[in-house]
Amino acid sequence: MRRHRFILLVAGAAAIWPLSLSAQQPAQPALPVIGVLNSTTVGLRDEQAAAFRAGLKEVGYVIGQNVTIEYRWANDQYDRLPALAAELVSRKVAVIVAAGGPVSAIAAKNVTTTIPIVFTTIADPVKSGLVASLSRPGGNVTGTAGLTSELDPKRLELLHQIKPTTGPLGALINPNRPDVDTQLRDVQAGAAAIGRQLIILNTGTEREIDIAFETLARQPVDALLVSADPFFSSRRAQVIALAARHAVPAIYQWREFPAAGGLMSYGPIIADAYRQTGIYVGRILKGAQPADLPVTRPTRFEFVINRTTANALGLTVPRLLLGLADDVLD
What we know:
By secondary structure, the protein is an alpha/beta fold. The strands form 2 sheets. It has a 7-stranded mixed β-sheet, sandwiched between helices. Strand 6 (169-173), helix 6 (180-193) and strand 7 form a beta-alpha-beta unit. It has 13 helices and 12 strands. The chain has helices spanning 2-24, 46-58, 81-90, 102-111, 152-162, 180-193, 206-218, 230-234, 236-245, 256-259, 270-285, 307-312, 319-324; strands at residues 33-38, 68-73, 95-99, 117-122, 141-145, 169-173, 198-202, 223-226, 250-252, 264-268, 301-306, 327-329. It folds into 2 domains: 33-146 and 270-300, Response regulator (Rossmann fold); 149-268 and 302-329, 3-Layer(aba) Sandwich (Rossmann fold), CATH 3.40.50.
């Protein structure tokens, strides 16, 4: 009887030991979290997401394996950005990626001085107050400068070459952009340099895009600049469809526009910026400080023409432009 009782006690203890041992094992550390704050609509475009993941992987990080990611999207409602940025701070994310223009980066910077922030494709981060200088950012912010709106005058010049008439040109401008005054001065100077009148169409909502093209139906322009702004990128399908419906030749910032049926684009290769963002995020996760990571600038640009759209608009693309193009889509 005693022997039987002893065996039961030993067996019971053996059953409990593994549970006790496992309970004493140290908890696995949580994976670091990357917070993405974006002023635009839900979803990084495929080439952006792939380039960002590739940059992370170069530094040894794979989303879902040794790092996780959380997104906050403002859906072009900029007044939501401060609260969304605060949510990421309360989640104690390891680093914040600010996408969709300077509004996202400014909102993030205003709510934290300790969590590292990496911005993407911002025209002038020094003038925006995000960094002290490109070579020595200082503070908790760094990223990639975009050469985005600065290229609007060059886009006007290309538009003039494909439509070398004397009529006015139009420009869609987002009045909600933080540096809109600088952008306006640049496009007006660009139009003056080629001797063309410029009609500014302030367009900061989806409905205002429709109204802008209704205005163009009453006050025609020879061609249209869709200025560099994340808002227009997030409304790409709407803008391209209206330009086609009203038979307005238009130039855009990114190649995704002519790839989707727009006439032409000129700008940096955006995938390069997102790859660099991924690299910087990975380096920060390994211990690098944003203050020691210089803001990078684009080194590759591309001019893309959709010849099918040009034919539909009755345009003959000059040989000079075809020769300058990095890609001609048929």
